[in-house]
Write a structure and sequence with these properties.
By secondary structure, the protein is mainly α. It has 6 helices and 2 strands; from the N terminus they run H-E-E-H-H-H-H-H. It has a two-stranded antiparallel ribbon with strand order 1-2. The protein is globular, with a radius of gyration of 18 Å.
């Protein structure tokens, strides 16, 4: 299965994982997780993994190819929402129709919040990591943590503010932003050994058809 593996083949795998996680995050984001005073969207289960894949893509394949993947995820996510909306509108005799609408239905406000935060956070995360790589090539840990912190902060601020302003008091929104950013950075910190291992392994892999583009 992994014979003659190249960066081209691994790129395809990473793109598939990235886009799948985007679709999952969009659905999970419709439910909130409440623990004591902490309120978070359930997309925290998958969204940090997006930034880890973003780090790997940016580090190995560069900003331009990573940006293309981010835009592809955006298009697929938007297409999925359009398909869900059409399916909800279509007449049905299914006993699960209401449940389908509840789970996959979305408001324009949440859709706008999700798409804006996704594009902004991921683009900034990739750009910061690649820019830092020019001066601090050997400081992968610092670059991953800093780029994730900046990207996650921007993502959380945009999504939570647009999605929940007017629904929750300002102090709750600030708490949600801080808790979400803190959780995602902790996630990145715990997962860093895996990220590092993947990055160092990919640096040794043959470029394949991507040669000259990274």
């Amino acid at each position: 299965m992994f014979e003659n593996i190249t960066k081209t083949k691994i790129f395809a795998i990473l793109v598939g994982c990235f886009c799948a996680l985007i679709m999952m995050s969009n659905i999970l984001g419709s439910k909130t997780l409440s623990i004591s005073f902490i309120v978070l969207p359930c997309s925290i289960l998958t969204f940090p993994a997006l930034f880890i894949i973003n780090d790997i893509l940016s580090e190995i394949y560069g900003f331009e190819l990573t940006k293309m993947v981010i835009y592809l995820g955006f298009i697929l996510n938007l297409f999925g929402v359009i398909c869900y909306t059409i399916a909800i509108i279509l007449p049905s005799t299914s006993p699960n129709s209401d449940a389908f609408t509840t789970i996959l239905g979305t408001t324009p406000r949440l859709l706008f919040a999700g798409l804006c935060s996704y594009i902004s956070g991921n683009i900034v995360n990739s750009k910061v990591l690649v820019k830092l790589k020019e001066k601090y090539y050997n400081l992968l840990f610092v670059r991953c943590m800093l780029s994730t912190a900046v990207g996650e902060f921007l993502d959380s601020c945009i999504f939570i503010t647009i999605a929940f302003i007017g629904e929750f008091p300002v102090n709750i929104i600030i708490t949600m932003i801080c808790c979400q950013v803190g959780f995602k950075i902790l996630y990145e910190f715990i997962s860093y050994p895996i990220t590092r291992k993947v990055v160092f392994a990919l640096r040794k892999v043959d470029d394949g058809e991507l040669k000259g583009q990274i």
